[in-house]
Design goal:
Elements: H1 19-24, H2 29-34, H3 39-49, H4 61-66, E1 79-84, H5 93-100, H6 102-115, E2 120-125, H7 130-145, E3 161-166, H8 176-183, E4 210-214, H9 215-227, H10 229-233, E5 245-252, E6 258-263, H11 268-274, E7 283-287, E8 296-297, H12 298-303, E9 322-327, H13 332-346, H14 352-372, H15 377-388, H16 395-421
Parallel strand pairs: 1-2, 1-4, 2-3, 5-9
Antiparallel strand pairs: 5-6, 7-8, 7-9
Helix pairs in contact: 5-6, 5-7, 6-7, 6-9, 13-14, 13-16, 14-15, 14-16, 15-16
């Protein structure tokens, strides 16, 4: 049982944040190699690697990269964007990658910019991540001075510029169309999705073809180009269709919270052991991939294998990698209430199912946790969630509904007990509901 450190291998070394320190470990060898390759050859390596987007959806990265206009097809500028908003509760891996390994991201985006024939890239960072912004800004400045960004990179004739943009700390702006709206100075609200609107690779930011991936995804590119897509595909080969490594942000009731990089195919129980095991009691439950994914029991943790398809076998998801382990003293009803509060507060209000539905969930849970629950409240909660799930303008509605549905499915008896007795079956107390 051990981590497989690929992206985080040098994250402990302060010198890795400097260009000289990064180059000592082979940094920018991948870009030099890539600039001698055909653009399509780079995309083919990404395809061979099996790399899937690490933001949560797990969409094959090469399909996005391949969707931008090819040489001779461009009719104007094209862009790439790094989604570094990272607003999913329980997830903090991208923050560490940007702060400790900024050149890995910058090199990865430069490779992606060349492969997709893009003119410029934007790193969209959530406004609270000031240290991240300073770290990557310093790396970009060093890269420009060394001829690794800007005009005629390394004498190749390739031009590519990279910018940093700080958002205002909105969870909604982690959704790609809302992110693009925010980047353009508009309200951070989602747009129509394909098939009703063009894909970002056709018409994205400023109505130009746009590639969007997250920090972890771009950071994989230098390793894939250096060692080859076939090599990368050997990592996670025991799974159905999950390749490479994945960083999990482990928190909750564990003895050693933090970011852990593991190979796909690792049992979820091993991730718990890497985090020092359960703290304060026996394991009760786990939210494997961020607060929006369905909760699973301790028994399911013992069965779960980390992989995009494999996690569905225990009715959950890899998600963004925000893994929260909960001990036996956790009241699931209160946990559901706290989770629902976040999504209700972060709804942008553009669509009725999410705007109204998240508030209704809060109203019902407020009633339950204050000791005034009614016999029909569980079914009412499920009915409200079903009217949000798949019906909201973007994925925030799904993110609000899935955890509530999952907690009721797995721990329904706790909700029933709270309603019948007016207090938690775990703590023996009702939850104090603060006035708005």
């Amino acid at each position: 049982m051990a981590e497989y450190k690929l992206l985080l291998e040098h994250s402990h070394d302060p010198a890795f944040k400097t260009l000289a320190g990064y180059q000592k470990t082979g940094g920018y060898d991948a870009l030099k190699k890539a600039l001698k390759m055909e653009r399509q050859g780079i995309i083919d390596e990404i395809k061979t690697s099996g790399l899937r987007g690490r933001g949560g959806a797990g969409f094959p990265a090469w399909i996005k990269w391949n969707g931008l206009p090819k040489e001779g097809q461009k009719k104007g500028p094209t862009y790439i964007i790094c989604n570094a908003d990272e607003g999913e509760p329980g997830t903090f891996k991208d923050k560490q990658l940007i702060e400790t390994c900024p050149f890995q991201l910058v090199e990865g985006m430069t490779i992606a910019g060349y492969a997709t024939n893009a003119d410029a890239g934007y790193i969209y960072i959530r406004g609270e991540f000031i240290d991240c912004a300073r770290s990557v800004r310093s790396a970009i400045d060093e890269a420009y001075k060394a001829g690794l960004l800007g005009k005629n990179i390394l004498g190749s004739g390739v031009d590519f510029d990279l910018y940093v943009h700080l958002g205002a700390g909105s969870y909604e702006c982690g959704e790609e169309s809302a992110l693009m709206s925010s980047l353009m100075g508009e309200r951070g609200m989602p747009r129509l999705k394909f098939p009703h609107a063009p894909l970002p690779t056709v018409s994205g930011v400023w109505e130009r073809p746009t590639l969007i991936n997250n920090v972890e995804t771009y950071s994989c590119a230098p390793h894939i180009i250096n060692k080859g897509g076939a090599w990368y595909a050997t990592l996670g080969a025991s799974t159905k269709n999950s390749r490479g490594t994945k960083i999990f942000s482990v928190s909750g009731h564990v003895n050693k919270p933090g970011n852990f990089e593991i190979e796909f195919g690792t049992p979820l129980a091993e991730l718990l052991q890497l985090a020092g095991g359960v703290k304060g009691g026996k394991l009760k439950a786990c939210v494997p991939g961020g607060s929006s994914v369905p909760i699973i029991t301790a028994e399911a943790v013992d069965k779960a294998i980390i992989g995009y398809e494999e996690m569905s076998e225990v009715k959950s998801m890899v998600g963004s990698g925000g893994c929260m382990f909960l001990n036996e003293h956790t009241c699931i009803v209160t946990f559901a209430w706290r989770t629902a509060q976040f999504y209700a507060a972060e709804s942008c209000g553009k669509c009725t199912p999410c705007r109204e539905g998240t508030k209704w969930i809060i109203q019902i849970l407020d009633r339950i946790v204050s000791g005034g629950g009614k016999p029909g409240d569980i079914d009412l909660l499920l009915r409200v969630c079903s009217q949000i799930d798949g019906r909201s303008f973007c994925g925030l509605g799904d993110a609000a509904a899935w955890p509530i549905q999952g907690m009721i499915r797995v721990f329904r008896e706790e909700f029933e007990y709270f309603i019948e007795h007016g207090h938690s079956m775990v703590t023996g107390k009702e939850t104090l509901v603060m006035a708005p």
